[in-house]
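Quick review question:
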């Protein structure tokens, strides 16, 4: 009888551990808990239809001023050098940056400017790379990464949210560009102005 109890306890512990792991993964993916709050990740960020705050953003590589209020569509991508999901989405962001008329502004959290610029260099990022700090994160109300804003030609937030997949990227760009997969090249994204 004691062997049966040990087996039952072991199975219960294994199920509990599996449940905890799956819950943690689900919370990360859905953003149910954002830094200890009950606010969802997609509730983060400046609201759709609003203007982004005016901040003195500086490109970490060139020391040039970065103006996110120009009258052209843009993708503001918030990532982190320590974020594995950010590394997975970067090839798709890079593809959009390389092939289409959408400015990508990379706001990267990292240890320091050298860490951020090395990360951007590793992915061949062309657009501005801003070393994001806590002040920038708070001003944009961004608490998780990868997170992005799509800004339209009027300078208003057209879309925002957690961005872990190419599909999410395509949906986010839809308000400013028609985006689709090429049937003959399923790995490519096509943006039509």
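Suggested answer, residue by residue:
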């Amino acid at each position: 009888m004691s062997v049966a109890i040990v087996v039952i306890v072991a199975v219960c512990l294994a199920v509990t551990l599996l449940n905890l792991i799956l819950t943690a993964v689900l919370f990360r993916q859905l953003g149910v808990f954002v830094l200890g709050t009950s606010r969802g990740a997609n509730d983060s960020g400046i609201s759709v239809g609003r203007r982004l705050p005016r901040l003195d953003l500086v490109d970490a590589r060139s020391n040039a001023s970065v103006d996110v209020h120009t009258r052209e569509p843009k993708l503001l991508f918030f990532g982190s050098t320590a974020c594995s999901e950010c590394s997975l989405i970067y090839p798709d962001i890079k593809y959009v940056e390389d092939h289409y008329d959408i400015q990508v502004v990379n706001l990267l959290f990292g240890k320091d400017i050298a860490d951020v610029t090395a990360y951007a260099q590793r992915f061949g990022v062309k657009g501005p790379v801003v070393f994001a700090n806590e002040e920038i994160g708070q001003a944009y109300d961004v608490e998780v990464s990868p997170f992005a804003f799509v800004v339209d030609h009027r300078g208003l937030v057209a879309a925002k949210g957690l961005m872990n997949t190419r599909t999410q990227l395509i949906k986010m760009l839809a308000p400013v560009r028609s985006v689709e997969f090429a049937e003959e090249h399923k790995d490519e994204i096509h943006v039509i102005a």
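Why it works: The chain has two domains: 1-30, 41-192. Residues 26-39, 180-193 have pLDDT under 50 and may be disordered.
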